[in-house]
Write a structure and sequence with these properties.
single chain, alpha+beta, Aminopeptidase, 6-stranded mixed sheet, 4 helices, Acetyltransferase_Butenolide, GNAT_dom
Length: about 140
């Protein structure tokens, strides 16, 4: 699936992904995956439904869904390069993804964010009901040596 709008391409084609660019952003600029190894990024992409945003030959955005494509999807690693923020690209990416055929009919769409609640609320995301029922194992600084 691929669409073009205002000179940007939104695509779910993995062969277009620029893994080195994704790794650079996640390992150096994100707050959630500092120091993540390239091999881990590669494996995460292989095992996820991924989306890229491109301007010409440059990848300027990314997101991936960890999903079984039947019941549950977890949205993660969403970013837009800083030079392209403020142009509505996050909203367009969310619209592109949320209607993707592989994400239809799930009973749970979930994510975690420290700073983009307003964006995701526009697409129906809300605080978890009964958060006391949710559990996790979290390895802080997992990628730091």
């Amino acid at each position: 699936m691929q669409i073009s709008e205002n000179g940007f391409i939104f695509s779910d084609k993995k062969d277009l992904l620029q893994v080195n660019s994704i790794h650079r952003y996640l390992s150096k600029e994100s707050y959630w995956a500092q120091h993540i190894p390239l091999e881990t990024v590669q494996r995460s992409i292989e095992n996820s439904l991924c989306f890229g945003i491109y301007k010409g030959t440059e990848q300027i955005g990314f997101a991936r869904w960890v999903t079984d494509r039947a019941t549950t999807g977890w949205l993660c690693d969403v970013y837009i390069e800083s030079a392209y923020r403020g142009q509505g690209l996050s909203k367009k990416l969310m619209s592109f993804m949320i209607f993707h055929p592989d994400l239809q009919g799930l009973h749970r769409y979930q994510l975690a964010t420290a700073d983009a609640h307003g964006l995701y609320a526009q697409f129906g995301f809300a605080p978890i009901e009964n958060p006391e029922n949710q559990m996790a194992i979290v390895i802080k600084n997992a990628y730091q040596k």
